[in-house]
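Researcher: I'm preparing a figure for a lab meeting and need a structural model of a single chain. I don't have an experimental structure, so a prediction will have to do for now. The sequence is pasted below. Please return the structure as tokens so I can convert it later.
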Amino acid sequence: MEEGKFLEWLKQDGDLVKEGEPLFTLESDKAAQEVEALDAGILSLCGDSPKPGEIVKVGRVLGYLLAPDEAAPTSCEASVPPAASQGVSEPQTGPTARPTEKPSRTAAPTAPPGQEVPASPRARRAARQANVDLSTLRPTGKGGRIRERDVLGARVATTPAPGSLREVPITPMRRTIASRMVHSLNNTAPVTLTCRCDATELVTLRAQLKAAGAAVVPGVTDVIAKITAGALLAHPMLTARWDTERLLLPNDINIGIAVDTDAGLLVPVLRDVCTASLTALATQSRQLFESARSGRLGAADMQGGCFTLTNLGGFGIEGFTPIINHPETAILGLGAILYEAVALADGTLTSRRQMTLSLTFDHRILDGAPAARFLQTLRQRIEAPVAWII
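Model: Understood. Here is the structure written out token by token.
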């Protein structure tokens, strides 16, 4: 990380700050994170302290923590140390802490009218970029909160002049997604295999858990993630990573789940999927998905995955070609579960729930036959999920 977008101060100028308290929020390529104070003191902001939305380089002095009666500096040093040009993991002003989404407490001088209207940080940034007055928008978020999609919808609703082109700003997250997609295609040999599987028992299992009054009912993706983890243990090369002269295999099966958010595609990671119970897994995924969609997902929540699941079945998509989440080796696409006529062994027809599995894998690491065997194992386990979950 060489620079980040400064979102907001979580303390005001002159506030007493305790060691470990969240001090400000910084946005990296894909996550907004709180940065904690390393020491205690009185916060002193300079005339050139960053404002919300300002890009700050690693190593820049943002403000000071003063002792009682200590004189406040008149300006901050805006220098970047040599280490920043080589890329460092975190700003020197503090370590990464818990993710957050809080209302802006300090409005930028250049903020559009309506800055005090309840709105998410992403909505405020989109409004500044599009020059949209937040007070004129109809909120769709909880508690009358304006969301980013409300701002983007207002831009779309604006009637352009005949023959003109409408500008849509490319956000840092969109640039990151684009860069990683192209990087994946340029650094892997992707091949996609598809197969059909009977999802009747999978749907029945979920219905039984719901009827039993389970506190957290696992989704289809949760159940398949649990089954996939076991299949990956039987076919470990699907979790390998290419490392020039060798392949690296992980010790733990952590599975990323692609999540659609207002800001773009995020991939939070489910931890220790093999050992976690289905209920614990469903609880973990629900928390991660809520954090992703509310902008509170931390960078650590998206690291350490060895395999990714992406589900477009809710949109009625049956089969597709997912792009590998590099540096992983494979990604599994889940299609829609649909009723279809199926011929039984005696020649009669019956109705069963069917779904398509789309596996994209890196042909550099494994060949088509091993990938097909993994897909075959996965299909067999999805068709009899209870035995494999137990």
